[in-house]
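Q: I'm writing a short methods note and want an example of a predicted protein-small molecule complex. Could you take the sequence and the SMILES for flavin-adenine dinucleotide and return the bound structure as tokens? Please keep the output block clean; save any remarks for afterwards.
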Amino acid sequence: MSAFDVVVVGGGIAGASAAAVLSETRRVVLLEREGHPGYHTSGRSAALFSETYGNATVRGLSVGSRAFLQSPPAGFAEHPILSPRGGLFVGRAAHLAEIAKRAAEGVALVPSVRAIDGAEARRLVPILRPDVVAGGILEPDAMDIDTHGLLQGFLKVVRANGGRVVTDAEVTALNRGLGGWTVATPAGSFAAPVVVNAAGAWADVLARMAGAAPVGLVPKRRTAFMVEPPAGLDIRDWPITGTVEENFYFKPDAGMLLCSPEDETPSEPCDAQPEEIDIAIAVDRIQATADLPVRRIGRKWAGLRSFVADKTPVVGFDPKVDGFFWLAGQGGYGFQTAPGMATTAAALATGRPLPPGLAALGVTEAALSPARFAA
Ligand SMILES: Cc1cc2nc3c(=O)[nH]c(=O)nc-3n(C[C@H](O)[C@H](O)[C@H](O)COP(=O)(O)OP(=O)(O)OC[C@H]3O[C@@H](n4cnc5c(N)ncnc54)[C@H](O)[C@@H]3O)c2cc1C
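A: Understood, no commentary inside the block.
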């Protein structure tokens, strides 16, 4: 039996980032069921940083994460974590009022956000159909995230601080005794007074194992695939382009266009796979708005974005089960909020208040607390 201060369960971006911050002051072990960290949702994202995406708490966590993502500590990563991309969310004439309203909301947190007309949208993304696209919201400072670099950077920090990362270590039992938790895995048993539940789509499964009430997490499948860009156009500087209805997006990615129907199909926690019908729906929706011939579908995949009912992450100690700490419900924002979520989780798990920078951005302990489900 190996003894630690904190056992973190789940080697996705949530577990890795929290383990990194906790390892600065605590003896930490990170347990991952699969053969390598990031196998599930964290290996399948669209890698966007958008400060206008999600509800007010998510936006606060994203804005509060920018400084770390833009300037991580020396030696954290070999390449910049963020690179310029921009975001454009278009609509038809019927959506212009909605576009104006959302642009006004966006500008309150991110001053560079603005509403643009159809002609400007087409200057940025020339394949947008003039008879369809009447305007859009432009977020010029939306960024691409090097998700692999970010995950590996956090894992490197854990190891550099003397923490352990153990793979092929599925947690199969969690028992609480007088001295704290005993955590059983095929890779050995681990003891600690605190367990952090960063099990992604399996967070409610892990909670039940610990005797805690589930928070009603729903894993939702999202599909993504690659297509060739239109011939003769330089797509490199195109922003990620979607609609205000959130029914598709496409985004330049290593010379191809990464596309998604923005599906949210409820699923059991599993190794999610793409369905042909969702790819066909995405192509259909994209072609109704943009002139994008699709001759062949390249790589395709799907991942689970896990949400609770209010779409706000769940961060904090379980109100009933001692030493069981939640870090779940990252939804579609797990990468862009990771630094903020990790510092929040580390503060709350070690009995400190929310980081002041995040509190100033409107993030509250109550909004994140798992106690909101017990009420
Ligand atoms: C198509 C798609 C596009 C996305 N685009 C973006 C984007 O542009 N920007 C953004 O910020 N986010 C995006 N996301 C969301 C983001 O990827 C997730 O929010 C994030 O990866 C969730 O991280 P996680 O660590 O909570 O979960 P995961 O990465 O799933 O990690 C959880 C880990 O826990 C492990 N685990 C579970 N149970 C156990 C157990 N009993 N014992 C040991 N280990 C266990 C699992 O094996 C898994 O590796 C996207 C997601 C998808 C699918």
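A: Remarks, as requested: The chain has two domains: 2-67+146-216+310-374, 87-140+218-307. Residues 9-15, 31-34, 39-42, 44-48, 170-171, 198-202, 206, 222, 224, 260, 303, 305, 330-336 surround flavin-adenine dinucleotide (CB under 6 Å).
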